[in-house]
Amino acid sequence: MIEQVKRWIDDISRNNMYSRLDSAVCDIQNDQSEREVILLGRKFIQYPNVFPIDKFDDTEFFSEAVKMFPGEDFLEIGVGAGVTSVIAALNGANVIGVDINEEAIYNSKENAILNKVEHSTEFFVSDIFSEVPDKKFDTIFWNVPFCYSEINELNMLERSVFDFQYKSLENFIRNSKSFLKPNGRLLIGFSNIWGLPDKLFRILYESGYTDLRIIKQEMAEWNSIKFDLTLYELKNNNS
Description:
Layout (H helix, E strand, L loop, with lengths): L11 H19 L4 E5 L2 E5 L11 H8 L7 E5 L5 H8 L3 E6 L2 H13 L6 E5 L11 E7 L3 E3 L12 E3 L2 H10 L3 E11 L6 H10 L5 E11 L2 E11 L4
């Protein structure tokens, strides 16, 4: 019997692309080894069951593209192994990082200690903003799950790349202004080729974000699939 292909989305070509990505995620999940990774000239520990920082180009790209300033209050959603949060802290930011995956929080804490920024970083298990401390931030960043999915039953690693009906993306955008300082920045790591930009832009517009700017963009390639990595910036113009 031929195995039925998952229907992530109605678009046939995109569905096939998503199935290839899901197979790669399954392979990653089967790799239970903890290892050291050198990224941006620094050593990091990669835990199993945490989305890998070295299998795709996005972690390095966004960690380099997100520019921080000394003393800035920075919140990262979906920290994974904590690379972007660690780099932000090394640049002088006061960092809070959250992830729905408890293993990711342990991983981030270890990498903060390894890079000697444990005193300027805090990490919490949180479903987006659910357990974020009650404070305002200069910058909030999330390298969001790019892929729109009609499948709701997703394991922890799949949720790093697939988002059921963009429910998490919508939650993130619609509630972000409650945690941003006036004129604070919302930074969204996205891919217009992997993701559905029309849906992203609609959510942003309906949430009152109308000033969209591309901070950095470049093309990458994975398994012969060429795609963009794009960092969007939106300002909180609410006083």
